[in-house]
Amino acid sequence: MSSERSYVSVAVRYGERIRKTLSDMGLLDGDYKVISEDGTLFLPTVVEVSPNQIRQNSSDKSSLKTGKRVFESVVQGRRTLTEVLEGRLTPAELALLPRAFDLIGDIAVLEIPDALSHHSRLIGRAFHDIHRNFKTVLAKRGAISGVTRTRQYDLLYGEDRTKTIHTEYGCRLAVDVEKAYFSPRLLEEHNRVAQLVEQDEVVVDMFCGVGPFAIHIARQKHAKVIAIDINPSAIDLLKESISLNKLIGSIVPVTADAHDYVKRHRLKADRVIMNHPSGASEFIPDACRILKSNGTLHYYDFMGGPSPEATMTEKITRLIEQEGRSVKQVTAIRRVRDSAPYEYQMVADVIID
Ligand SMILES: C[S@@+](CC[C@H](N)C(=O)[O-])C[C@H]1O[C@@H](n2cnc3c(N)ncnc32)[C@H](O)[C@@H]1O
Description:
single chain, alpha/beta, Alpha-Beta Plaits, GMP Synthetase, Chain A, domain 3, Rossmann fold, seven-stranded mixed β-sheet, four-stranded antiparallel β-sheet, 11 helices, binds S-adenosylmethionine
């Protein structure tokens, strides 16, 4: 099977070093074959990568290019779940098989539709037959809920655990999918925000979860991140990640309600991250209290409708003005990912006066 993928290309003589850097950053797409052509290696990647991101993680000064092209699958004709389960499930059931998975460290998370729940172990085993590098295959049970934004999982196949070490952009993150919120789909967002941070900034991450923003920032920049979460398990995992990574900056992990913490401490922040899309709007007064003039707010929310960008801009401007502050500039509005049909998790980067 072939498929168009993003790639990083480099002269063959530097190829092994760059391949290892991409692999350490969790960016190499191991499902596709590396192409060697006219003295150049084309390395398939899981997302589009900029050469600068790789240079930051490698002492290598070789010239790198990026682009898209067709790569061959490592396992020729690697079978799909549908092919493996043909004959064991009815055609109607085959049509319901999950097509997307969350891959977190060596744990794969599947979402099995209710109509297939009686086949869930069979599906888990079939998934493992195809993707043998995952030690544990879990199925989501129910929706994300509660203040900690967590859910439960059923073991479908393999080792009975929910904890793993996940790598994104070279950051090693301790994750326990059942004990604290983590989404592998936010990797680009974590990296994007870290790249915007300037040296010696004070950053407050009000809802840090297991701390991916904090780790990305402190690995890349000499900055101080105060990382707050109400879930003690999330902060324990962040503490573990702090010891797993070489940090340039510093992280202060705090188990607390962000509202209480801000009230009790005299914080002054250059940047505030509010990635709690279902609840962040209630904490805007706290963010306004700690943000310096000309400070940056990264505000996340769920938006639908015909023009989610306009609705997001209108909402964040109104919320900030209600606190007696003003929006100097909206520097970015992005759809981070789909959250429901016709609804997105959005981010607004806003400079506040
Ligand atoms: C969407 S998750 C965080 C995601 C995280 N920023 C990331 O990128 O992985 C929202 C987090 O907010 C935390 N939370 C909810 N209410 C809170 C509060 N009042 N104070 C601090 N943290 C809170 C939850 O425990 C959860 O970890």
